[in-house]
Amino acid sequence: MRGQPLPRVFIVYEHKLFKDILANVLGQESIVGAAERVAGPFEATIEAIRSIGPDVVILEVEADGNNAWRILLASGEARRVVVLDMDKGLIHEYAMRTSAIRTIEELSALIGTT
C-alpha cells in the first residue's frame, strides 16, 4: 500500500485476540477505534463508529448478530462493513454507495440489468 493512504479501520470484536491479530496485520496506525461486543444494546458502538467515521468497520463473525446492516444503515459514515470469520476463512462484505442517475437506462446499467 505504499503511496496510498491507510484505510481507517474500526474493529468490533468478541475475542480480544481477534482485535490484536487484525491490529498486527493491518498495522496499529490503521486502527482508529475498537469496541468489544457485549450483551445488551449496540447503540453505544454505533455512536462511536458514527463519531469516528472510519473507512471500514470489521466485525468478528461472533460479534455480528445482524449488526453489520445496523452499522451500515445507521452510521452513514462507514461505507464498507466486513464480517470476518477467521475460522472458516470467509468474509461477508456490505457496502453502500451513492450514485447519480438521470435516466432509467443509467439505473438499469447501475444495477446490472443491461
Looking at this protein, list some descriptive labels.
five-stranded mixed β-sheet; alpha/beta; 5 strands; 5 helices
According to CATH, what is the topology? Answer: Rossmann fold
CATH class annotation:
Alpha Beta
- How many strands appear in the DSSP assignment? 5
Low-confidence runs (pLDDT<50, min 5 residues)?
A: none
**Can you name the CATH architecture?**
3-Layer(aba) Sandwich
Provide the residue-averaged pLDDT. Answer: 82
Whole-number tally of structural domains: 1
Structural class: alpha/beta
Question: What is the CA–CA distance across the termini?
Answer: 34 Å
Across the major sheet, the strand order is 2-1-3-4-5
Strand content: 15-25%
Question: Radius of gyration from the CA trace?
Answer: 16 Å
3D architecture notes:
There is one protein chain. By secondary structure, the protein is α/β, with parallel strands linked by helices. Helices cover 37% and strands 25% of the residues. It has one domain: Rossmann fold (3-Layer(aba) Sandwich), CATH 3.40.50. It contains five helices and five strands, in the order βαβαβααββα. It has a five-stranded mixed beta sheet, sandwiched between helices. Strand 4 (80-85) and strand 5 form a beta hairpin. Helix 2 packs across helix 4 (67-75).
Describe the structure concisely.
The chain is α/β, with parallel strands linked by helices. The protein has one domain: Rossmann fold, CATH 3.40.50.
Secondary structure blueprint with pairings:
Elements lengths: L8 E5 L2 H11 L4 E6 L6 H10 L3 E5 H4 L2 H9 L4 E6 L4 E6 L8 H8 L3
Helix pairs in contact: 2-4
